[in-house]
């Protein structure tokens, strides 16, 4: 009897080991180590509404020519985008008027939108000029991470901020991120990330959310901690500020283009030992979210595990390390 049980346990463990090795082999076989960043020809230019001519976007590899680039990923955001851009541009214009050395651009990245997002954004470009507002129209939907990456790769700023199109984070809180980033990285050539955070609002969120959504929230936070990021409490707030040097390192290495891209960015930053600071920001939940709580978080949970597994077995590698070694 004892011998049979031992044999059964041996066979089960052997089967599990074979299954695990098979999964690892499949991941290694089907996964490219470095991201293959494709850009359609039409995505290399933007329209200047005043001259009615297309102009080629600059490259993130170029030297910066502005103080700040704001990247706004937008998918079917014709309703929520105007209020966000109104607040954003009013703040930036006021800041620019008070400090002539402060120059900026806003790049709205339409992620394959099917509504009037592009037309709305072009209206702001016409009003403020293409030097200040540019529209990058992606041919197909890549996901939020893919849209943010394309905007970052097209930016001119010494520092680069991505901000969600819903305007949930109060844009004047940029000042708090700017102060935190300068403490980490006095120059754009230095590394640093200032991360907007809603962690201080967690108790209020629990009070207003259903029990089911609260369980999902805590479960997601645990999976992030377990598989990816240990030093940041809120990885998902869409308000993050990078130096140009850091953006180059992270967005050329980013594999995930959907909702879990924030986690991979911060996972990469932790592994590269880049300086990070989590900064409390004001945040209000805005109607119209594209996330469906259960299925979106289930997908993100799967993505978190795959991020961990692929880096663990070497299926994914960090492009900036490869460049440094070369």
From TrEMBL:
<keyword id="KW-0472">Membrane</keyword>
<dbReference type="Pfam" id="PF00535">
    <property type="entry name" value="Glycos_transf_2"/>
</dbReference>
<dbReference type="InterPro" id="IPR001173">
    <property type="entry name" value="Glyco_trans_2-like"/>
</dbReference>
<keyword id="KW-0256">Endoplasmic reticulum</keyword>
<protein>
    <recommendedName>
        <fullName>Dolichyl-phosphate beta-glucosyltransferase</fullName>
        <ecNumber>2.4.1.117</ecNumber>
    </recommendedName>
</protein>
<comment type="pathway">
    <text>Protein modification; protein glycosylation.</text>
</comment>
<feature type="domain" description="Glycosyltransferase 2-like">
    <location>
        <begin position="69"/>
        <end position="247"/>
    </location>
</feature>
<keyword id="KW-0328">Glycosyltransferase</keyword>
<dbReference type="InterPro" id="IPR029044">
    <property type="entry name" value="Nucleotide-diphossugar_trans"/>
</dbReference>
<dbReference type="GO" id="GO:0004581">
    <property type="term" value="F:dolichyl-phosphate beta-glucosyltransferase activity"/>
</dbReference>
<keyword id="KW-0808">Transferase</keyword>
<dbReference type="InterPro" id="IPR035518">
    <property type="entry name" value="DPG_synthase"/>
</dbReference>
<keyword id="KW-0735">Signal-anchor</keyword>
<keyword id="KW-1133">Transmembrane helix</keyword>
<dbReference type="GO" id="GO:0005789">
    <property type="term" value="C:endoplasmic reticulum membrane"/>
</dbReference>
<comment type="similarity">
    <text>Belongs to the glycosyltransferase 2 family.</text>
</comment>
<dbReference type="GO" id="GO:0006487">
    <property type="term" value="P:protein N-linked glycosylation"/>
</dbReference>
<keyword id="KW-0812">Transmembrane</keyword>
């Amino acid at each position: 009897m004892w011998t049979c049980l031992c044999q059964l346990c041996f066979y089960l463990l052997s089967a599990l080991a074979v299954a695990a090795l098979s999964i690892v082999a499949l991941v290694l076989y089907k996964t490219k180590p470095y991201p293959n960043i494709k850009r359609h020809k039409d995505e290399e230019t933007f329209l200047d509404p005043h001259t009615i001519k297309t102009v080629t976007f600059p490259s993130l590899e170029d030297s910066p020519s502005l103080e700040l680039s704001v990247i706004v990923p937008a998918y079917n955001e014709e309703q929520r985008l105007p209020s966000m851009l109104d607040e954003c541009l009013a703040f930036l214009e006021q800041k620019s008027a008070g400090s002539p050395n402060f120059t900026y651009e806003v790049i709205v990245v339409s992620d394959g939108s099917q509504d009037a997002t592009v037309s709305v954004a072009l209206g702001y470009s016409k009003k403020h000029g293409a030097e200040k507002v540019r529209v990058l129209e992606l041919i197909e939907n890549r996901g939020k991470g893919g849209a943010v990456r394309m905007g970052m790769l097209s930016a001119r700023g010494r520092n680069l901020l991505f901000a969600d199109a819903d305007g949930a984070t109060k844009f004047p809180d940029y000042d708090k991120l700017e102060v935190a980033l300068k403490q980490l990285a006095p120059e754009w050539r230095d590394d640093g990330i200032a991360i907007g955070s809603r962690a201080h609002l967690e108790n209020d969120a629990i009070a207003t959310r259903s029990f089911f959504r609260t369980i999902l929230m805590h479960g997601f936070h645990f999976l992030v901690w377990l598989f990816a990021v240990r030093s940041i409490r809120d990885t998902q707030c869409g308000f993050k500020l990078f130096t140009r040097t850091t953006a180059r390192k992270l967005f050329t290495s980013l594999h995930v283009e959907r909702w879990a891209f924030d986690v991979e960015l911060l996972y990469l930053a932790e592994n590269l030992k880049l300086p990070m600071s989590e900064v409390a920001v004001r945040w209000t939940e805005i109607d119209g979210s594209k996330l469906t709580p259960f299925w979106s978080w289930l997908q993100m949970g799967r993505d978190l595990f795959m991020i961990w597994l692929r880096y663990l077995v070497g299926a994914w590698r960090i492009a900036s390390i490869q460049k440094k070694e070369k």
